[in-house]
Design a protein that fits this description.
- There is one protein chain.
- The protein is an alpha/beta fold.
- Helices cover 46% and strands 13% of the residues.
- The chain is built from 9 helices and 5 strands.
- The chain has a 5-stranded parallel sheet, sandwiched between helices.
């Protein structure tokens, strides 16, 4: 019997005696640390004002939601992203509260992983319209407690519909210089309202505040639509990147890695 044939018989004998599993594991052992990622569907409800509706989007694709969906769909842990858009131009906190009674919106929230809200800009505009004859910083400060109360109720209503849903509140940016040119403290006013939004969001679990005002402070870049109020395509793209970054921070959405 040739010498090379003896090891072959030994190997066959080991396999037949049940040692084949050990040999297979030895030869085909997975790389250390290798983890299989099972993609999951991501379902988001987007509610609020014109920033959710996407006013200023040149192609009517839904503003930031269009770019956010593409970003999330590019992740290996995401099977498919669904963003249901319930944005309505001109909505204030009181109007959004009323719309949360809509059965279709409630059904979408019940079935969602996260709710993203843009609200507050039109509340500020309401203060402006009601105080045109005597416009000053104090008028905006007086309106903040009512805004906080309505914002609290919005969060409570959403959690009543879906106790486990994640909530992201997008901050207010400053397109108001054209409208409030007589008020030098306009940046302070926006900062106060954003601070109020952040404070309310901080009271709730699985809830984050996403600041965007600094994005639109870039004087060297035109980020507003022709109305000088809403974002243009580039403005929405940058908003989306900021929202995407915060949704992934600390794995807020729980996407497999």
């Amino acid at each position: 019997m040739k010498k090379w044939f003896i090891p072959l018989i030994a190997a066959v004998s080991l396999a037949m005696s049940g040692c084949s599993i050990g040999i297979h594991n030895l030869l085909f052992k997975p790389a250390s640390g290798e983890k299989k990622v099972v993609p999951v569907p991501v379902r988001i409800v987007s509610i609020g004002d014109s920033l959710t509706e996407g006013v200023g989007d040149s192609k009517g694709r839904g503003g930031y939601t269009y770019y956010l969906k593409n970003e999330l769909d590019g992740m290996k842990g995401v099977k498919k992203t669904t963003i249901t858009n319930y944005g309505v131009k001109g909505n204030r906190t009181d109007q959004l509260l009323a719309r949360l009674q809509d059965k279709n919106i409630q059904k979408s929230i019940r079935e969602s992983d996260a709710v993203i809200i843009t609200i507050g800009g039109n509340d500020i505009m309401k203060v402006f319209r009601e105080n045109i004859p005597n416009l000053n910083k104090q008028a905006f400060q007086i309106a903040i407690p009512g805004y906080e109360q309505r914002l609290n109720e919005i969060f409570r209503q959403i959690r009543k519909i879906n106790p486990n849903v994640k909530i992201a509140l997008v901050g207010i940016y400053n397109p108001f210089s054209k409208w409030f040119s007589d008020i030098k403290e306009v940046d302070d006013i926006l900062a106060d309202w954003n601070a109020a939004s952040k404070k309310v969001a901080g009271k709730y679990k699985n809830t984050i505040f996403i600041p965007v005002s600094d994005i639109f402070d870039r004087k060297e870049e035109d980020l507003l639509y022709d109305d000088h109020f809403h974002p243009n395509d580039q403005g929405y793209k940058l908003m989306s990147k900021r929202i995407y970054h915060y949704l992934l921070k600390g794995n807020f959405l729980g996407i497999p890695k």
